[in-house]
Backbone:
């Protein structure tokens, strides 16, 4: 029922499209560089401009990533929500509420759980062909060292609720500057990354969490 | 003059009988109608097909390499059919709630109304003047910290978090599967509901043709391919092919019989008379079936050719005897009566005895062929015999046919015996080396060989919803409360099975099932909330939400108020609710049903099915049906064949009053069955529901050859060559005609029916060879001094 209601809530506006000739060179170069990033650490500011709210909500956060698929995502300061990914398992922790939920990556749909909002796959794609298979590129604009990329996932389910994914990256270093999801109801969630450190050492314990005293819910049927 | 009037009156009565009977003929394409209704899988699947298969809903599949083209095509089709109310009541290419998001509020209100009263009290408390602000603040916090887009989107439009009270598990929670589009968008589905229910299969076929025509008129993007499936498409495909199989096999059998007759006798008039008799028998039998039997199933369709193939035997016999007959018509009838009555009685008795079976399909087959055989015998004796005599008096003298000349030759009889013996050795050897034929009770044998509807369904399963390994949970009760109790019990069993590692996942209708008791308690708490709408809206705005954030809450509270005078159990009724519930709930005045889906772990299907199975609850699938049939049907056939065998033995025993003759009959029949099994193993054929029925047909038809031979031996004082000469032509004609009858259904569109035809044709040929060439030899060996029977 909840997913239905969720979809119903999103069915308020129509998706947009673009059809101008695109210069894909910076994107190809950026995708090609993804393999160079063994680790990524950054701070970010998340701005949620929800259609139903009069003013946007701004929350700080931090992210750690290590190849091939270890991730820690903290939202709030102190962290109110922590997402940990190790291999194919996600752990969603709410420290203040002493609650956690374990999910397998395969069961996290585009509109549910952790993947849709907080997570971006690192790397986004192994090569440009795979990138094009996963995303429709709506627009590419380059200003100085910033490239603004507007995408739409090809996945039909994701397209039901997303009208665009907006990514800005640094054409020199290849690091992410911002990542924004725009839903069909006009709401958006934007992450602006700062203090980005590439390929610096990350303590492996960063991707662990001591669950002592935490009520852990396993995946439901 | 009086005689002429009598014939005219008789013809008028027969015509009225035929018109009345044929107008009542109808087909039932439901394969389950042929299977024992007491089997749980049959019972459960029948309920599923009756209540959840959506008989008026056609599924149009739209496929393209480009998602945009598929989307445009689906929308164009839905728009076009939306303008054809003469054909389509509803054309749906997107979930209704995508078109009318506000509609979902009714279902939401309904589900909340079913929640336990303590949860509802929490909701009501959270909306109270003292708690509303805190509830809204908690939602704002969640909107700030949640990483789930689902939760954020939901809370944005549900600021009082009413959805939080609902169970997260269940039928629709977490489901990512769409019934409208594949993940990549290149495969789309449009659902078309017929403007009115179909009165019969002809209406169904005509409607589908109109839909195909209308779809062809829609300008679709290049590269888009359409498919048509769903119940109306299956009914059209199957009943259309049944009609064709029946007509074509009957027609081809008549043609083959004509050819065989012409090759043997080279006479046109008796040939036309015989064909006329066969048509008369066929028509009278079908009319009788229409008047006295229920709808024809696919197995009954195959009987058309079989009936003709069997009835012509009597015609051949009468005609052959008439050629050398010098007495009156009455004397010819009397002469033929003993043989025809013998074979017709034993054949009809065997076929009517199929009513002892618990398989309705076999009962119908038995009744149809039994009626056909009796009518055939009567028509051949009373109408054809006088005609042949009339013809004989005006015809040229009789010339011996090739077959008659062959059977007069001792060399041919010897060669035939050696050939048949060699064949028997090869077939018995094949059975010994290769083993008995495998058993196949899978759904494959119950389906048409070629069907556009099945092709489209396979694409649907491959691209959108793969339910091939899914078990359907069907729960039935007299009313909502009884069904709810059974649904809860089934859910408990499924949860336990999941813990035991037998089930991967399951979803039942429980989250959307009305709980009358909860509704009665909750409604007085929820319906007055509508009076607080202005206060609640102001609280939402004060908390920082916009007007639109309150729309859903507003609709839900108004819905509760609208239901304030309704008597539980309350069901939601708008278009979105009906669309969602149509596949999970079905209501009739005396029965309320719920459905669910279970994904079992491979190898545990039987265990889960047994755990859930109880009165009013079934876990079913076509695969499970196949397994159940494999367990039950062979035993059933053994029982029926043993009963029929016993009946036959009694009839034959009374007829022959000779132990050696009865023993020879039993050995011949057993040898035929053993050789048939060997031939099937050699040809890689398998046993299934249909060709097991072939065994019964063989008992009913093939044994006639050995009975006729034994009777001929009796007439000829034990002179085997004389008996072979006398019956060689007739049995050859009979076996060629009957094999033609069965052979023509070997190409039937229904896989099982085709298997039945192949098995019977093979069995009859073996039976005729053994009866004609080995049985007389065996008799000679047993009676070296030509003892009369």
Residues:
């Amino acid at each position: 029922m909840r997913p239905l209601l969720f979809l119903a809530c999103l069915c308020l506006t129509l998706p947009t499209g673009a059809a101008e000739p695109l210069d894909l060179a910076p994107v190809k170069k950026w995708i090609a560089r993804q393999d160079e990033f063994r680790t990524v650490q950054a701070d970010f500011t998340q701005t949620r401009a929800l259609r139903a709210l009069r003013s946007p909500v701004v929350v700080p956060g931090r992210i750690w990533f290590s190849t091939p698929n270890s991730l820690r995502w903290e939202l709030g300061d102190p962290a109110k929500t922590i997402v940990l990914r190790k291999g194919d398992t996600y752990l969603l922790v709410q420290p203040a509420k002493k609650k956690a939920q374990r999910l397998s990556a395969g069961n996290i749909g585009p509109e549910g759980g952790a993947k849709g909002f907080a997570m971006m796959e690192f790397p986004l794609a192994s090569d440009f062909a795979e990138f094009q298979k996963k995303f429709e590129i709506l627009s590419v604009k380059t200003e100085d060292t910033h490239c603004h990329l507007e995408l739409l996932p090809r996945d039909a389910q994701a397209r039901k609720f997303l009208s665009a994914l907006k990514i800005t990256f640094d054409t020199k270093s290849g690091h992410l500057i911002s990542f924004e999801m725009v839903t069909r109801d006009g709401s958006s969630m934007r992450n602006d990354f700062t203090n980005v450190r590439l390929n610096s050492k990350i303590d492996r314990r960063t991707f662990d969490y001591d669950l002592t005293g935490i009520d852990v819910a396993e995946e439901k049927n | 003059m009086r005689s002429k009037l009598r014939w005219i009156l008789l013809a008028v009565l027969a015509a009225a009988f035929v018109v009345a009977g044929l107008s009542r003929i109808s087909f039932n394409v439901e394969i389950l109608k042929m299977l024992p209704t007491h089997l749980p899988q049959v019972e459960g699947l029948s309920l599923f097909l009756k209540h959840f298969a959506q008989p008026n809903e056609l599924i149009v599949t739209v496929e393209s390499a480009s998602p945009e083209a598929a989307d445009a095509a689906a929308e164009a089709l839905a728009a076009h059919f939306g303008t054809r109310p003469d054909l389509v009541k509803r054309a749906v290419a997107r979930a209704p709630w995508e078109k009318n998001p506000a509609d979902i509020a009714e279902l939401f209100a309904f589900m909340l109304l079913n929640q336990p009263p303590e949860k509802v009290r929490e909701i009501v408390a959270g909306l109270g003047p003292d708690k509303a602000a805190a509830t809204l603040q908690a939602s704002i916090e969640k909107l700030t910290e949640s990483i789930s887009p689902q939760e954020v989107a939901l809370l944005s439009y549900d600021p009082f978090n009413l959805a939080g009270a609902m169970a997260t598990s269940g039928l629709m929670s977490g489901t990512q599967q769409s019934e409208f589009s594949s993940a990549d968008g290149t495969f789309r589905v449009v659902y078309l509901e017929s403007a009115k229910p179909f009165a019969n299969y002809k209406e169904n076929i005509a409607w589908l043709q109109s839909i195909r025509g209308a779809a062809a008129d829609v300008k679709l993007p290049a590269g888009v391919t359409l498919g048509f499936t769903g119940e109306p498409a299956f009914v059209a495909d199957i009943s259309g092919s049944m009609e064709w199989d029946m007509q074509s096999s009957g027609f081809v059998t008549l043609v083959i019989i004509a050819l065989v007759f012409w090759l043997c006798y080279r006479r046109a008039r008796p040939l036309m008379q015989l064909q006329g008799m066969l048509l008369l028998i066929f028509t009278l039998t079908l009319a009788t079936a229409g008047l006295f039997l229920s709808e024809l199933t696919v197995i009954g369709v195959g009987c058309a050719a079989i009936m003709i193939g069997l009835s012509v035997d009597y015609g051949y016999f009468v005609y052959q005897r008439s050629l050398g007959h010098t007495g009156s018509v009455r004397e010819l009838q009397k002469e033929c009566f003993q043989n025809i009555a013998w074979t017709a009685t034993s054949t009809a008795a065997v076929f009517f005895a199929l009513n002892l079976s618990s398989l309705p399909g076999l009962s119908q087959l038995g009744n149809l062929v039994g009626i056909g055989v009796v009518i055939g015998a009567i028509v051949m004796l009373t109408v054809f015999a006088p005609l042949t005599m009339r013809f004989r008096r005006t015809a040229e003298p009789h010339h011996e046919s090739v077959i008659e000349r062959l059977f007069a030759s001792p060399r041919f009889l010897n060669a035939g015996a050696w050939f048949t013996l060699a064949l028997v050795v090869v077939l018995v050897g094949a059975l010994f080396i290769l083993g008995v034929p495998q058993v196949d009770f899978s759904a494959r044998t119950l389906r048409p060989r070629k069907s556009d509807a099945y092709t489209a369904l396979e694409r649907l399963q491959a691209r959108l919803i793969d339910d091939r390994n899914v078990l359907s949970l069907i729960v039935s009760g007299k009313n909502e409360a009884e069904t709810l109790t059974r649904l809860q019990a089934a859910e408990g069993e499924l949860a336990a099975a999941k813990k035991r590692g037998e089930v991967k996942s399951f979803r039942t209708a429980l989250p959307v099932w009305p709980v009358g008791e909860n509704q009665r308690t909750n409604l007085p708490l929820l319906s007055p909330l509508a009076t607080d709408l202005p206060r609640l809206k102001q609280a939402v705005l004060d908390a920082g939400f916009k007007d639109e954030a309150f729309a859903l809450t507003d609709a839900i509270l108004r819905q509760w108020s609208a239901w304030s005078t309704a008597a539980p159990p309350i069901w939601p009724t708008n278009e979105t609710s009906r669309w969602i519930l149509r596949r999970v709930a079905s209501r009739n005045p005396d029965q309320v049903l719920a459905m669910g889906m279970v994904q079992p772990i491979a190898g545990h299907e039987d265990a889960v099915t047994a755990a859930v199975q109880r009165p009013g609850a079934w876990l079913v699938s076509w695969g499970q049906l196949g397994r159940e049939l494999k367990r039950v049907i062979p035993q059933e056939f053994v029982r029926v064949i043993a009963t029929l065998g016993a009946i036959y033995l009694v009839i034959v025993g009374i007829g022959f009053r000779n132990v050696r003759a009865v023993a020879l009959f039993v050995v011949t029949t057993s040898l035929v069955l053993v050789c048939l099994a060997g031939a099937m193993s050699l040809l890689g054929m398998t046993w299934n529901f249909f060709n097991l029925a072939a065994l019964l047909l063989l008992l009913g038809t093939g044994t006639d050859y050995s009975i006729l031979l034994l009777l001929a031996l009796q007439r000829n004082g034990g002179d085997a060559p004389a008996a072979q000469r006398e019956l060689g032509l007739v049995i050859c004609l009979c076996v060629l005609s009957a094999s033609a009858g069965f052979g023509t259904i070997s190409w039937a569109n229904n896989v099982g029916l085709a298997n039945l035809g192949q098995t019977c044709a093979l069995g009859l040929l073996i039976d005729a060879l053994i009866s004609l060439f080995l049985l007389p030899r065996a008799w000679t060996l047993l009676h070296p001094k030509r003892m009369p029977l």
About this structure: Chain A has one domain: 20-217. Residues 10 and 185 of chain A are 5 Å apart (CA to CA).
